[in-house]
Write a structure and sequence with these properties.
Sulfite Reductase Hemoprotein, domain 1; eight-stranded parallel sheet; 15 strands
Length: about 350
């Protein structure tokens, strides 16, 4: 079982991060923020998937102007993602966002960052200090020669010291490198030295299976050490997939349970059914079930009960039928056509 690091709590709107809160799942819209209806539609979809905080990009004035309406109608706290333009950070806060993300390294002058921090404090807005390979300060690049984990760490600690000196506490930090090990070391060291909540993710993880695996491995390395108070899986894909993957990572590590967890056997020569078809049917039928149960779909009756002992409920399939089982024990034989329906009945009746 993972023992989570103790951190202070910060608030993005009404969502607490760190402290005793569960690890928060966040994502970012991929629409043009200025297209208000499309952006809000995507936020709704993200919320349905379980996303708890949403970030929107604010690269142009039209995006900034759109924020007021988005914030007003968004069912999730909105974070404005700002690069380079301090006036957009101030403008976003004026338009009511719950948080802003800045990379102080690319805002430039310390006094300008301080003005943003002061304004955020007045309005109760959370700030994420972003530190990544691309926004490292020049002096640190010169000192270390490349964006090493030491350089990333030093940059993050330096900005935290300033925020603390300015008396600002409602902030979290992200330290990101596309190199998994640099990412791991920088975050690990930061976590050892502070109680500041960390936003964990792998930048530029990529597309398809490769992107998912890289994100999952990079994030899980840290989560398994108890590090990470909020996570974002960054994929070159639909943002709803980011949220799904984030929950799968948390579920796999036993850090959060959301809805049903469906597990299935890897299959082998004993298989007598079309497993893919069975799983698709069961998943379809169980969509939207929020009970936090582990359901196992096993390919045969020979080894299934033993293999799936950890599951709350499950199906062990035979040719044209399945045994429905509860905590590793068979309770009912059901026909192939009825198995998803019967499983759903058992889920409804299940009491921990
Ligand atoms: S449950 Fe049956 S089909 Fe699935 S891997 Fe085990 S023995 Fe093979």
């Amino acid at each position: 079982m993972v023992k989570r690091r103790k951190t202070r709590e910060v608030k993005v709107g009404n969502v607490g991060i760190g402290g005793d809160n569960p690890i928060r799942v966040q994502s970012m819209t991929s629409t043009k923020t200025r297209e208000v209806e499309n952006t809000l539609k995507q936020i709704e979809e993200l919320k349905k998937e379980g996303c708890e905080i949403v970030r929107v990009a604010v690269p142009h004035r039209e995006d900034l102007e759109a924020l007021e309406e988005i914030v007003k109608r968004s069912p999730l706290p909105v974070i404005a993602d700002i690069h380079f333009a301090p006036s957009y950070a101030i403008g976003s806060i004026e338009r009511g966002v719950a948080g802003i993300r800045i990379n102080p390294g690319n805002i430039g002058k310390v006094e300008v960052v301080r003005e943003i921090v002061e304004f955020a404090r007045e309005r109760g807005v959370c700030i994420r200090i972003g530190v990544n390979s691309g926004s490292l300060e020049k002096d640190l690049l010169e000192k270390y020669g490349y964006p090493s984990h030491q350089a990333l760490l030093e940059s993050a600690l330096r900005w935290c010291e300033r925020f603390e000196a300015w008396g600002f506490k409602n902030y979290k930090v992200s330290i990101k490198s596309s190199d998994l090990w640099e990412n791991y070391r920088a975050n690990l060291e930061f976590a050892r030295r502070t109680d500041i909540p960390l936003h964990v993710g792998i930048t530029e993880a990529g597309f398809g299976v490769g992107g998912i695996v890289k994100s999952a491995v990079g994030i899980a390395l840290l989560l398994s050490e108890g590090i990470g108070e909020t996570i974002r899986v960054s994929l070159t894909e639909e943002p709803t997939l980011e949220v799904r993957v984030a929950y799968e990572i948390l579920k796999a590590l036993g850090l959060r349970r959301k809805g049903l967890e469906i597990v299935s056997c890897p299959t082998c020569g004993r298989l007598e059914v079309d497993m893919e078809k069975v799983i698709r049917e069961v998943e379809e039928k169980l969509k939207g079930v929020e009970k936090p149960l582990k359901v196992a779909i096993m390919g045969c009756v020979v080894n299934a009960f033993g293999e799936a002992r950890e599951a709350d409920l499950g199906l062990a399939c035979g040719k044209g039928f399945a045994w429905l089982f509860k905590r590793g024990k068979p309770i009912k034989r059901v026909s192939e056509e009825e198995m998803a329906k019967e499983l759903l009945k058992e889920i409804d009746a299940f009491e921990g």
